[in-house]
Amino acid sequence: MLRGSCLCGGVAYRAEGPVHHASHCYCTMCQKQHGAGAGSYANVGSAGFAIERGAELVVEYASSGQGRRGFCRVCGSTLFWRSTASPESIAVTLGTLEPPYDGPVERELFTETKPAWLPVK
Ligand SMILES: [Zn+2]
Ligand SMILES: [Zn+2]
Hints:
Blueprint: E1 2-5, E2 12-15, E3 21-25, H1 28-34, E4 39-45, E5 50-53, E6 58-62, E7 67-72, E8 78-83, E9 89-93, E10 107-109
Parallel strand pairs: 3-10
Antiparallel strand pairs: 1-2, 2-5, 3-4, 4-9, 6-7, 7-8, 8-9
């Protein structure tokens, strides 16, 4: 069982494992939404995903025809990414998990737009 919450604590969710894979996504949409070099996610089955608290605070932004990005409208924490084309899975953000995610991250996505400033030199 995975649990997560947003920065203000208004939203809490749970997700059942197993994590199918975890990834760092460097697509330009993730960079914009997270305000960071990547969006980091754990892919889990959507059947086991539930918002336990603050569902009224969760806003979904349609960043593409099929992509939906859930975030807290109070504090702005990014919570999940899902695709209407593959409703069986949902990607929860690694940074909102409590306790911290300690599994492997197997994938890097959209490395062609990985920002040049990301590695510490
Ligand atoms: Zn919040
Ligand atoms: Zn992305």
